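Z., the sequence and structure:
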Amino acid sequence: MHRTFHFLPLTRSRKNEREHSSKSDRTEEQLADLKARLPKHSVPPAMLIELEELEEELERTRAEAAQESPQ
């Protein structure tokens, strides 16, 4: 008894939504990891720059996802 599964191709918007969600999740994980490594005092400038870049990337990704998803 074999069953055949048919998968419908993802629409472009659905595929983009998944990509944005995946990218957003990865960025959130990187952001959480960086925040966990931040020292309480004397934070190195490179870490602050990375923190700002990750926050901007997350904001950009969420904005792109919001523009592409139908309201």
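Residues 14-35+45-68 form one domain. The radius of gyration is 18 Å.

Let me know what you think.
H.
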